[in-house]
Amino acid sequence: MKRKINTIIFDLGGVLVDWKPEYVYRKAFNGDEEKVQWFLKNVCTPDWNMEQDAGRTIAEGEKIKIAEFPEYENLIKLFYKDWTQMLSGPIKENVELFKKLKSSGNYKVYALTNWSAEKWNKAIELFPFFEDFDGVVVSGIEKTRKPYPLIYNILLNRFNVNPEEAIFIDDNFENCEAAKKLKINSIHYQTNKDLLNKLQLLQINI
Question: What residues of the chain score a pLDDT lower than 50?
Fold first, then answer.
């Protein structure tokens, strides 16, 4: 018999808040999309950013990258200097969903996020609802990140969550697959409509 879901775990960036480095670099490159994409694929790459999310300091991350691309020093420093401009705001329909699930009293609602520890307090300042979760696990604070099993297990153990009674929602497919390997029900987030349909299939009352 399938276990009844009592826990919902949200990713933050890309699910509850809109985060895109492009917002900063489109300004820096005067709207030249080709240059923006080249820079984000070759210089300030997702893999580089994820190391800061996994606990490496921003200063150390910048030092490594500037040594590799000294001609882009100012543009590399821009990544964290103008970091708040990468966040355009909450994804309203999903925040509304989070609030409904939380206020229903039927579910414990947690967040599991890849986020630099040095930027977490600023994130709470920008998005006060981040403090409304029953608990949050932040990769930079834990010094590990999704999709490594350790970070999922930190959340499961810290909050006494049975994986088979939980749903994890993330816009990164790899992160969802990692959660599934730990027996956590997972939804790869693409659109709000698709998310609502999949939650209903899992018999979540919204």
Answer: 1
